[in-house]
Write a structure and sequence with these properties.
By secondary structure, the protein is α+β, with helices and mostly antiparallel strands. The chain contains eleven helices and 29 strands. The protein is 21% helix and 24% strand. The strands form six sheets. Strands 7-6-5-4-8-1-9-11-2-12 form a ten-stranded mixed sheet, sandwiched between helices. Strands 18, 20, 23, 25, 26 and 28 form a six-stranded mixed sheet that branches.
């Protein structure tokens, strides 16, 4: 062998040995349930449901026994993604644009993408629909799902894939899992960050028939503490949806085993808020939409073979804000940005060793703030509870422990001033939604205690030409109204007058020609209305034709849909034409100039696509 060849051979062997000595960076899989309460799993004590795959994560890894999220969906997602309390990132609510995460916030996906990871998200995003709020702009190279809050169609759902419309296949949780598994298979040779934010067991309550058959006549033996308000069929359907989720978690874990990736993959499972109906919660007070323990405590399991000791239980308080600093530390990945974090690196608790100082975790919703320490919770009204002796928050001990109450009240006031910009007095929680008995129909979509949201909807980015402007984000004027009180997954109806308009506050980023399309239905006899779209002096007119009047779906719900949620139907696409829009901010206005029939149309979405 010639000398230079020998040198090259030895060098290659050295590099190979050095690479082998370096531990492979762990893959990350985050599985997030939607509206699943702490008490909906076998691992947390529910004897009516079978969740062996999810329970195995607790058995083979660690349980964070006191893990806190937000009272509703979008804020939890923002806190998980950024490591910061949600008001800092501009998330004020769950709909009408208030769910958007400010574009100057950096995410977990940004951090892992910068480190060379493949990044993908599959499911309910709920932190912004238009670029640059879209998941593809927030560090996720691959996105499949829907960007809204709750979704109205769980079977063969209208979804998107990297900004392109697609139609899902089968039950939505099964479909999202299949796409996540395909992403894992595609990226098996490189480290990956796979985020699967499911949208179940969020309402509407629907599940494949085989799961419902297990529960439709099953006695509910563990009842919620507000038993008189519990709707038993909702509980049955939620538990059936939990078993479907468990089967999908099993599919992911099984595929990791088959690909021999399990030993180097961190798998996390948790939920985004408390339960969305009255049901068993281990005696905790509150549920979704409240800042009491039951509204913000989530099950949390994490498995990392060879690193986290099986059967570990962490009793120190932790929260969604802790995931970014913890996972970046586990993977040796740099933090994504310079902004200070509210979360802590949990590795000393999960891996053992290191001091763990006392902390406080704050919960905010709709102007209400509560604070949790290791031993106490001060609720939004100023009542103090000993959470070790009284986990159900039955006895206010503020007068017995005045020093503790004063300390925590002062901490809440400081937090309000720093995070909300206001030292407003404590206010009252308002649950986001109640069960089908209809006692509170999900009317609260914004958060009190925060400044008004003046952000326009962004239109016209060359890197992402299609901009959806759904009815959810529009404002109806005149006789037009929403198909139901909950804006998410709604559409506009009762458009009967030429004085009626629909507007969106938009900012056009790029001057150019835009294709205009509208998702619509229209009774055949009413077809032919002339409509006009205008913006800052530019306008485009067209006809609503042909007529298209499909029936409402009857195959989407296992049990009746809550009154505040829209019943859905198949919308067709009306190609209105093209219009030149100039860069700038203004009111994008849709009106009818002629109405030959009784109504113009029902409208689900306006889409602007930049062409040149």
């Amino acid at each position: 062998m010639k000398f230079p060849a020998l040198i090259l051979l030895l060098a290659a062997a050295f590099v190979s040995t050095a690479a082998a000595a370096q531990p492979a960076r762990p893959n990350i899989v985050i599985l997030l349930a939607d509206d699943q309460g702490w008490g909906d799993l076998g691992a947390t004590g529910n004897t009516m449901v079978r969740t062996p795959a999810i329970d195995s994560l607790a058995r083979d890894g660690a349980t964070l026994d006191r893990f806190y999220v937000c009272a509703v969906c979008a804020p939890t997602r923002a806190e998980m993604l950024t490591g910061r309390y949600h008001p800092r990132g501009g998330v004020r609510g769950v709909s009408t644009g208030q769910e958007r995460l400010n574009v100057d916030e950096k995410t977990l996906a940004d951090a892992f993408k910068a480190a060379g990871y493949a990044t993908g998200a599959f499911g309910k995003w709920h932190n912004g629909s238009q670029w640059p709020y879209h998941p593809n702009a927030r560090g996720f190279e691959e996105y499949y799902g829907f960007t809204s809050g709750h979704w109205g169609e769980y079977f063969n759902s209208p979804l998107e894939h990297n900004g392109q419309r697609v139609r899902g296949e089968g039950f939505i949780a099964d479909d999202l899992t299949s796409k996540a598994i395909a992403f894992i298979e595609k990226n098996r040779e490189r480290p990956f960050f796979c985020y699967v934010p499911y949208n179940t067991p969020h309402s509407p309550f629907a599940v494949p028939e085989k799961y419902w058959q297990r529960f439709k006549d099953k006695p509910i033996t563990q009842r919620g503490s507000d038993g008189a308000d519990e709707t038993v069929d909702i509980t049955r359907c939620v538990l059936a949806m939990a078993e479907n989720l468990d089967d999908n978690v099993a599919r992911v874990l099984r595929r990791l085993d088959e690909l021999k990736l399990a030993d180097n993959t961190i798998v996390i499972y948790f939920s985004d808020n408390g339960p969305n109906s009255f049901r068993w919660l281990g005696g905790m007070k509150g549920r979704k939409g409240t800042t009491d323990e039951g509204g913000v405590r989530s099950p949390f399991f994490i498995r990392w073979p060879g690193k986290i000791k099986p059967g570990t239980t962490v009793r120190e308080i932790a929260g969604a804000i802790d995931l970014l600093p913890t996972l970046t530390k586990f993977a040796g990945v740099a933090l994504p940005g310079p902004k200070p974090l509210d979360g802590r690196d949990l590795s000393p608790l999960l891996l053992g060793g290191g001091a763990w100082p006392e902390r406080m975790i704050f919960s905010h919703h709709n102007g209400s703030v509560s604070v949790r320490t290791q031993g106490y919770r001060l609720d939004n009204r100023g009542a103090l509870y000993d959470m070790l002796a009284d986990p159900g928050q039955q006895r206010d001990i503020a007068t017995d422990k005045p020093d503790v109450a004063k300390k925590l009240s002062s901490a809440v006031a400081t937090w309000r001033q720093e995070v909300l910009g206001s030292a407003a007095p404590l206010s009252t929680d308002e649950p986001a939604a109640k069960n089908a008995k209809g006692k509170n129909k999900n009317k609260a979509v914004g958060f009190a205690g925060l400044p008004p949201d003046d952000r326009p909807f962004t239109v016209g980015y060359a890197e992402f030409p299609m901009t959806p402007l759904p009815a959810r984000d529009g404002i109806a004027h005149g006789t037009i109204k929403r198909s139901a009180s909950a804006p998410n997954s709604s559409y506009f109806v009762n458009w009967t007058n030429t004085a009626d308009t629909i507007t969106w506050d938009v900012e056009v980023n790029t001057t150019g020609t835009y294709e205009v399309a509208i998702d619509y239905t229209c009774p055949v006899p009413d077809a032919g209305s002339t409509i006009e779209l205008s913006f800052n002096g530019a306008s485009l007119a067209g006809k609503v034709a042909p007529g298209w009047d499909p029936p409402l779906y009857t195959n989407q719900d296992t049990i009746p849909r809550p009154a505040g949620e829209s019943k859905m139907k198949e919308f067709h696409l009306l190609q209105l034409g093209t219009v030149r829009l100039e860069k700038g901010r203004g009111q994008l206005t849709l009106r009818a100039t002629q109405i030959p029939g009784k109504s113009v149309m029902d409208m689900r979405q306006l889409t602007l696509t930049l062409r040149k």
